[in-house]
Write a structure and sequence with these properties.
The complex is a heterodimer. By secondary structure, chain A is mostly helical. Chain A has helices at 7-31, 41-61, 63-78, 83-105, 149-163, 165-168, 200-209, 234-248, and strands at residues 125-128, 131-134. Chain A folds into 2 domains: 7-105, no CATH class; 125-248, Cytochrome Bc1 Complex, Chain D, domain 2 (Orthogonal Bundle), CATH 1.10.760. Chain A has 8 helices and 2 strands. The radius of gyration of chain A is 28 Å and the shape is elongated. Chain B is an all-alpha fold. The chains are: A mainly alpha, B mainly alpha.
């Protein structure tokens, strides 16, 4: 049976819907067993909106194809012999629209989506115990002496496993013993989207000042990071940072000039 | 009116230049100067004043920030338009002169006519902006004038020169034909040089506020105006705005052509405005293609200048606005492609390459979805639980710049391919080398896409700095393909037989709405990105040097910001519709003999 031209765009969008709603989560489940990584609703809506638009525009771009589609639509909405089917289709569309409207406004207990910034912007400078740090010029002082690099990394590793590993995990992948108790979960340092994107000065600020040091857009505190400068010295924080990069094989972002 | 606005501008600058220093030096209230430091005494310039709310005059219920914001935005819309249009008008006029084709000359004349209508509004909105700044932010204006006084005077003089050049260029069009044409083209060149100089001078004030140079940490000006002008972000912004102005000018005159096409009553008029719309769309797209890279360069420089501004921009609160930006850029690409697809209707019969359109549409969809996917997903608690964390194993990697760069490069290649298919549909290869050259082009496309994708994937396994650097070979690959294909196409077109005539005017009306969409999306995008660029200074008038001491020293909500941007866009579009209407008065005779069917190269 030949599928009418007017139906084909609808089928393409339906296929896209199936891929977005089931295909992507299925691939995600293979990559991350035990989960069903859905496409967040706000994203799925925009995906499908754009896909539907492209399909519609493609159909409308060709004069012959567009003429056929219009002819079929004229037939469907005007011919007496398809009156029953037409009524059913219009009823189905109306009911679907009604359900979508109902679903959008019905009371539910779910918390609303969060606009959380993964990398909140750091301040231009901050101070600890009266000592000011300018983040635009701050560098890891332990990188200067190459002969002691291994010692610093080793010291950083010890500090990490005494203090950080409970949350960030022994593989630095954010899967520590306490990880499941936190929302958001502890950062995964192995992910190229975290420390590999940042300068060491950022990590220093983030570790030293912890969750309470977050700027306004990070509030209410969306981080359980302690204020580590109360427990670690400046040198120890830099050592931990060296270890994070060394262990994960990542390199910190540096200024070009 | 323009001359009056320029004179007012000049007087205001002079007044503010003198009055501003008195204001800063005033010992009373919060505007009182700090104790004069040795540095200040040495260079004779005061530091940045420390302002408090009483230093910002209030007028009734007016919100000062919104007033200046809307005035600046409207002025920028008009300024971008009137600076962008003469650039491609000159190019079109030059082509017409060299090819002895009067149609190009007529079209260039009509383009500049629209620009003339908008020029008065540019001057008016500029005057309103200066008035608003002086009245509502006197401390800031005085401080900037204290540093940029000479630059502002030069700006005012150049504005007079711009006015003179534009009037002479437009009104001298008919008189300077024939052997006087080279002189007219030189006049157009002068107009563009002055216009570009105006743009880069005013850019220096904006980039100084973002990345101040030539002043110390307290804002004390060392006296070297050039150092203040040539800040670290000046050149990237100049390049970005230069390209964006051309693209924007093309988009707006494209909307004008669409407006005229829909209103056209004769085949001649339809043909003329169809050709005009096609040309305008081409101008907008050609200028748009390198724009993402210019923007990327500027963002990189911003990050390099200040980690705080860089993260605020891309990873912090403003990251959410980039989702809207992605949608608007996708809309622009899609509208431009749809217009080109519809353009196949101008050819006789069915294009031999029309079947490729569906695949191009598919590529655009995939690229857009990658381009759009944000780094940070907005999720409900239930969705987060289903994911087992905030990181999405499939979509997460698409949020990084490696994926974005890959997507935008392929999207650009797909758009260029659409344009290329239209051109190649008109000719048939008559010699064996032409078939081999076409196969070479196909090979180039395949190799380029493979290289771009490979570089994108490789970017995930290298440090951030290397990853950012990979965008250069990706862009180079894209540009190489475009250059090679243009050269090969030209060689084939000049030695082959034409199989299709182009029937200008044989274009569905719905395609014209794509041109309207382009203009609206460009305007909206400019407003949105302009707001982001300006607002990453956050609570600083001049970043790290001069704090915003007003009651508005906070980042507005995303909803409020987008509402103001949208309102500015709407006001501009209404005003530009007025300009279109004005430009249409007295037209008609010029287009009566426009091309209906022509073998012209588009």
């Amino acid at each position: 049976m030949k599928v009418p031209r007017a139906i084909r765009p609808i089928l393409v969008v339906a296929l896209a819907y199936a891929i977005v709603e089931a295909g992507i989560p299925a691939i995600g489940a293979l990559l991350k067993p035990g989960t069903w990584p859905v496409v967040p609703a706000h994203l799925a809506r925009i995906y499908l909106f754009f896909i539907a638009n492209v399909v519609l525009l493609y159909t409308a771009a060709d004069e012959v194809l567009w003429g056929r589609v219009r002819g079929e639509l004229r037939y469907f909405f005007g011919a007496d012999e398809v009156r029953v089917v037409r009524t059913l289709v219009i009823a189905a569309i109306s009911l679907a629209g009604g359900y979508v409207a109902y679903d959008a406004v019905r009371p539910r207990l779910e918390t609303p989506p969060e606009l959380r910034a993964i990398h909140p912007a750091p301040p231009a400078s901050f101070s600890i115990g009266g000592k000011a740090y300018d983040l635009s010029t701050l560098n890891n002082p332990l990188r200067a002496d190459k002969s002691k690099f291994a010692d610093h990394v080793k010291a950083g590793a010890e500090l990490y496993f005494k203090n950080c590993f409970f949350c960030h995990g022994d593989k630095l992948d954010g899967k520590g013993h306490y990880a499941d108790a936190f929302h958001p979960r502890p950062a995964n340092f192995r992910d190229v989207g975290t420390i590999a994107q940042l300068r060491e000065s950022y990590l220093f600020w983030r570790i030293a000042t912890g969750g309470p040091g977050l700027p306004r857009e990070g509030w209410p505190w969306m981080s359980s990071m302690p204020i580590w400068h109360r427990f670690l010295s400046e040198t120890e924080i830099w050592q931990v940072i060296l270890f994070l990069y060394d262990f994960t094989g990542q390199a910190p972002r540096v200024r070009d000039s | 009116m323009k001359a009056l606005a320029v004179m007012l501008l000049l007087v205001l600058v002079l007044l503010a230049s003198g009055g501003g220093r008195a204001l800063v030096a005033s010992p009373s209230g919060a505007m009182a100067a700090e104790t004069v430091s040795a540095a200040e005494a040495a260079v004779g310039h005061p530091g940045a004043p420390k302002l408090t709310p009483p230093d910002y005059p209030r007028y009734g219920g007016l919100n000062s920030r919104v007033v200046v914001w809307v005035a600046a935005q409207l002025h920028l819309f008009f300024a971008a338009f009137v600076l962008g249009v003469p650039i491609f008008v000159l190019a079109i006029e030059f082509i017409g002169w060299r090819n002895r084709d009067p149609r190009y000359d007529r079209m260039a004349h009509e383009f500049i006519k629209i620009s003339m209508g908008a020029f008065s509004l540019t001057a008016t909105s500029g005057g309103i902006l200066v008035f608003a700044l002086v009245a509502l932010y006197p401390g800031l204006f005085a401080y900037l004038t204290g540093i940029f006084g000479p630059v502002m005077l030069l700006y005012a003089l150049l504005f007079l020169a711009e006015t003179a050049c534009l009037y002479a260029y437009y009104y001298g069009w008919d008189a300077m034909q024939g052997r006087r044409k080279p002189g007219h083209i030189l006049l157009g060149l002068g107009l563009n040089l002055v216009g570009t100089a105006l743009m880069v001078l005013s850019n220096s004030w904006a980039t100084f506020m973002m990345a101040p140079s030539g002043v110390d940490a307290r804002g004390v000006f060392a006296g070297d105006v050039w150092a203040a002008v040539a800040g670290p972000l000046w050149t990237p912004l100049n390049v970005h705005r230069f390209l964006a102005n051309i693209a924007y000018g093309g988009a707006i005159v494209g909307a004008y052509a669409a407006y005229r096409f829909i209103a056209a009553r004769t085949p001649g008029e339809k043909a003329h405005y169809d050709w005009m719309g096609h040309t305008a769309n081409g101008v907008a797209i050609v200028a748009l293609l390198p724009l993402p890279f210019a923007g990327y360069w500027m963002t990189k420089e911003i990050y390099d200048y200040s980690q705080q501004m860089g993260i605020t921009l891309m990873g912090g609160v403003f990251a959410w606005l980039f989702i809207i930006q992605a949608v608007l850029i996708g809309t622009i690409f899609l509208a431009a492609n749809f217009y080109l697809w519809c353009g196949m209707a101008r050819l006789d019969g069915t294009s031999r390459t029309a079947y490729l359109v569906k695949y191009i549409a598919g590529v655009l969809v995939i690229c857009f979805l990658v381009w759009f996917t944000p780094h940070t997903l907005v999720m409900t608690a239930r969705e987060t639980a289903a994911l087992g964390g905030a990181y999405h194993p499939v979509l997460g990697p698409l949020g990084l710049m490696s994926a974005k760069n890959t997507a935008v490069n392929v999207m650009i290649l797909a758009t260029f391919l659409t344009y290329q298919l239209f051109r190649r549909s008109m000719v048939r290869s008559t010699q064996s080398w032409m078939a081999r050259a076409t196969r070479l082009q196909v090979a180039f496309y395949i190799a380029a896409v493979a290289n771009i994708v490979w570089l994108g994937v490789y970017g995930y396994f290298v440090p951030a700095n290397v990853r950012i650097g990979l965008s250069v070979p990706q862009v180079a690959t894209t540009l190489l393909v475009i250059v090679v294909c243009v050269v090969v196409d030209e060689a084939i077109a000049s030695r082959s037989e034409r199989v299709h005539m182009i029937h200008w005017g044989r274009m569905p009306t719905r395609a014209q709405y794509a041109l309207f969409t382009l203009a609206v999306a460009f305007t909206w995008l400019m407003g949105l990105m302009g707001y982001i660029r300006s607002s990453i200074r956050q609570h600083w008038h001049v970043y790290t040097v001069m704090r915003d001491g007003s009651a508005d020293a906070f980042t507005p909500t995303i909803g409020h910001a987008t509402s103001i941007v949208s309102a500015s866009t709407l006001v501009f579009l209404l005003l530009i519709l007025f300009v279109f209407w004005l430009s249409g008065l007295g037209r008609g005779q010029a287009v009566a003999s426009g091309p209906v069917a022509a073998p012209a190269t588009p």
